[in-house]
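Hi U.,

Before I forget, here's the chain from the pilot set. I'm dumping it here mostly so it's searchable later in email.
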Amino acid sequence: MDAFRTILNVDRSAELISIKDQLFTIGSCFADTIGEQLIQNKFNVLKNPFGTTYNPLSIHNQLSYAIHNHLPAQHTFLQNQDVYLNYNFHSSLSALSHTALEKILADSIGKAHYFLKDAKWIMITYGTAWIYTRKDTGEIVANCHKVPANQFEKELCTQKRMLDSFEELYTKLKAFNPNLKIILTVSPVRHLKDTLELNSVSKSVLRLACHTITQQHADVYYFPAYEILLDDLRDYRFYKPDMIHPSVEAEEYIWNKFRQMYFDDNTLAFLEKWKKIRLGLQHKPFHVTSSAHQTFLLGLLSQLNEVKDIVSVSEEMELVKSQLL
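Structure:
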């Protein structure tokens, strides 16, 4: 036997991402992971502006706020001890007064609105199909904010409900930004609090819905992050110590698959150059003023000059210049 695991070989997407494209990520923590990789590689990205959100209906709701540039209704705000929060957003968007929280949300929604208007790509990462509904209003929440569980009904979002919600969102997105292309992913992070059995049910609903959506819309694509971790890597050495989240090595492997699938040739060539530049920028010399390091800095500055018309590297160039004699 030549191979001891099943390798997931990705096909090149029909539509490719350029380093010049504007990208928006939203959803579960995988949206943060891929967003951070994009940022580190000099893409123009707005990364998960509303904080980690797991269920598809809340993610769609957040995007609706961004499209219309509207604040959520007053009854969605709450105070837990001395912290003000909103049921439609992650607890990272919180404040010590109602007014301060409104401003934070207005800024976040406004920033997302204007970024999304000019974006070429949006990447939506679904984490779970389990949803929590407020008993007092019948509204689905993105986060329970440690409010007692007896104030919510927990239920599984059906595929039909998810598809209907996506169709409504898709219509809004295309009216708002007709050039927008969408990449869907299912987070490989398992939700063990739902039990392994019910986590499998949840992920199955998400995966089937994503498949159906991509069959219905030519400009919606699926990236198999979930399958790469669970079926390709398929080993606990590719998990962090919590045995839930992918390790750094797994994240890098998934990122490389993403590159192969979605980046055009010019972008791939740039990334090879940028990898060498990043390593150079991270170099910590023992003697900054030595002739060897000064020569190294001049070479690094030359490399930065080669890519300055592709991406913004003004900060990096200033950093290098500040070390030159």
